[in-house]
Amino acid sequence: MKSTLQRILQRVLGYDAYLWYFTLYKLRTLKYDKHENDFFYFLNMLQKNHIALDIGANLGLMSYHLAKNTKETFAFEPMPNNYKVVEKVKAKYNLDNLHLLTNALGNENKSIQLVLPEVDGVKKQGLSHVVDAKMTEFNDGSIFETECLKLDDQPELKNKKIDAIKIDVENFEYEVFLGAENILKTDKPVIYCELWDNKNRLDCFDYLQSLGYKTMVLQHGKLEAIQSNPSHIQNFFFIHKHP
Description:
Elements lengths: L1 H12 L1 H15 L7 H8 L6 E5 L5 H8 L3 E5 L3 H13 L5 E4 L2 E3 L3 E10 L2 E2 L5 E2 L10 E10 L13 E4 L5 H6 L2 H7 L2 E5 L4 H12 L2 E7 L2 E4 L9 E6 L3
């Protein structure tokens, strides 16, 4: 039923208008969505003088909340239809401290391809991802080419101390973390990350732990260190042992 409604709305409104109206609806209702409790816990960990990154900003829903609660927020969103919506969110809500960056992030500075998946005639902007051999799902759709940079080489972040990172890049998180080694070692930002239950997740666990991070999950209103790989959980907090 949900896919049928999405397909109808995308055809009647047009894809870009559909994304905008969907964004306005979600901005009004996100805080009531129990599936976003982990994000709002993360948001409450931040301070007004912090600088945050939203890596995989999608339509800017979390960028909006991050910008409202930090000194500066840098939103990374390389998909053209998506980042146009983030630009509209920034303008509509006068978020002068929200900076939109439209390049992708990874472990190499190069051109890469992204795919906007289409499933049963519905464009799935939330599943957009880097075309990569390890991403075996949701590869049918429109292809875009964009620049990819290491986070450590991002010129807009030069001389900035990064306090917090929210990241959701559909199985490309490990590569992004590899390209952010200097920032992770120097600034030790708190990280909120969605990870599927696969090798990418385990690689992220191992790499961040090697840099001194604890892997934690929100349980019963507080953060607890994990003792194994909890397959039923997707949202993780990484906190440096010596901030």
